[in-house]
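for the recovery benchmark. tokens below, seq after
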């Protein structure tokens, strides 16, 4: 193969690759927002964005009762935390999640923990194991099983833990912050940026949230249906 032919073939491959990528982008943009994907989400749907209202959901709590987001209609807001039993990051943040609830629940912003893990993949995340974990740690908030992963997909949660701070705005829960809890999963003493704490503190003071999104730090959620 001479040099000119080689150059022509390489150019043709580049053009074909470019056209293929354009087609993929066009298909992605033609999808509804809920079916597009985030860069770090694998096949997870894009989910809610800051400023969007969240649809009501209803899941089973570890005490056997059913809990709905609408049950919190008298609250100023909710910190929805997607977490689980098996993930080391979720375990590292566990005490900090409890501390957030202890600090803000009485001020109108309780924690609502949701486990999106498929128990067939992670034995530690069966409902019985969830009950054991909640009991041993003394969770002061509901710990809900989302084993069908419908709520996590609707939110666009990608990792555990992944936090969505919601503000009750005229009976609608509107997303104010999405992301990680703080900037140091390994060492609570080394934290310099407390994203969730700062977001809720500002909301309680009727101030805008300064940092509205951060990249979630944790274990990727393994999706079973999409």
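predicted aa per position
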């Amino acid at each position: 193969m001479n040099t000119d032919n080689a150059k022509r073939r390489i150019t043709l491959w580049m053009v074909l690759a470019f056209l293929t990528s354009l087609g993929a982008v066009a298909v992605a943009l033609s999808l509804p927002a809920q079916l597009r994907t985030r860069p770090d989400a694998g096949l997870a749907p894009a989910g809610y964005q800051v400023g969007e209202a969240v649809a009501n959901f209803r899941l089973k709590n570890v005490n056997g009762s059913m809990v709905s987001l609408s049950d919190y209609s008298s609250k100023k807001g909710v910190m929805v935390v997607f977490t689980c039993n098996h993930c080391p990051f979720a375990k590292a943040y566990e005490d900090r999640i409890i501390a957030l609830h202890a600090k803000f629940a009485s001020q109108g912003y309780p924690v609502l923990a949701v486990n999106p893990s498929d128990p067939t993949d992670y034995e530690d995340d069966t409902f019985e194991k969830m009950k054991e974990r909640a009991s041993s740690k003394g969770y002061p908030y509901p710990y809900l099983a989302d084993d069908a992963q419908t709520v996590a997909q609707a939110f666009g949660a990608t990792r555990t833990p992944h936090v969505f701070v919601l503000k009750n705005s005229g009976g609608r829960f509107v997303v104010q912050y999405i992301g990680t809890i703080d900037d140091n999963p390994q060492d609570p003493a080394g934290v310099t940026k407390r994203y969730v704490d700062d977001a809720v503190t500002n909301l309680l003071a009727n101030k805008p949230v300064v940092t509205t999104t951060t990249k979630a730090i944790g274990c990727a959620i393994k999706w079973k249906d999409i």
